[in-house]
Amino acid sequence: MPNRFLLLWDKFIWSIEKTARICKGFSSKFFYTVATLVICCTVVSFLGKDSLDTIKFLKSAYYETIVAKWPEFVEFLSAPVGKLLFSILAVLLFICFLLRKFYRPFALLIAHSTMGHDLSTLDKSVGKAFWFKRKEVGCQLPSRDAPSEQIVEAIQSQDTAFSEIKQKNWRSTIFYYGVAHTPLIFRLGYQFGQTAKVRFLHRFRPNGVAQNFTELPKIDNDRLAKLNRQIKRDITGHSKELLVVISTSYQVIEENLLAIDPNKEMYRYWVQIDEEDNGVDFFNSYHKIHSYADSFEADIEQIVRKWNLQTVHIVISSSVPFTFYLGQLMNNNQFNKIIVYHYDHTRFTWGIDIMESDPEKAIIWAKALATK
Fold first, then answer.
1. Under the phi-then-psi rule, with left for phi > 0, alpha for psi from -120 to 50, and beta for the rest, what region is 289?
2. Is the pLDDT of residue 208 over 60?
3. For the chain, which end, N or C, has fewer CB atoms within 10 Å of the first or last residue's CB respectively?
4. What is the pTM of this model?
């Protein structure tokens, strides 16, 4: 279990987040002008009106203007009420100064890598906004022709990392980002489940040029891509399996699916982006990811319930944040079995049984499905 004191400390830090935001919202010119005036008044309150003459660097035109128009102000400052008032103001300004300079909430940063990509290039605005505890998840796994031993090792490593996070993490804010195999991304999202409020970093690729990882915006102004949804029912009515195809980055063609459904017997739920939008980071905001993923999951759940389907096979060509979030959504006790597949250079070769806790039993080879 996470340390109780640290949990309370994290809660306290977040409880003052609004106050810190207000303090940081003041312009530097306004804040330091008010601070200088209060310091001058506080010095006069305790050291006398002539004390400012000996402190050459401490000057406030506003203080001098107030004294010139209201000479009795100096006597007010020397009175007990004046001393108390400006002592409180000085303390509040000092606290505000500390919040402006040093306040950052704590956050867990999950860096998920199984393909050897550099995940160190965070946008500066992200690094300055939080005190991050970085947690590396994953191990090197070939994208092509990965042997079962290495897949098992990758699953074990990831499951162990998640267990450590669950046991030790006390930070209420969690960020996730990375470049990893689709089944592993989905599995980690599923493990976190719907109750975990995970925030996402993403590397946008305008004109094919990789950027630093930065947090997704809440909304975006990009035009909506055209998504075609199709639901194909098994004509014989014998199948108890559903094949879900979600391709919003690159199109998936029918031929690629034969390794999973060689006789085309499964029910199909197919979401395909228009060809003209191939290669575009379509899910580039929280709003798009949440709204579309919620809609897709509701469709899948309805299909499974309507025809009493037992196994859901999923292939995804989409962004890492979308894949992770869909995994979170589908942890809802509505599905008996979920298998998510890896695309291995023109073919789907292996997948992971998302609910299977034993890494060796969790591996599903697509070629085995084709020959059963």
1. alpha
2. no
3. C
4. 0.83
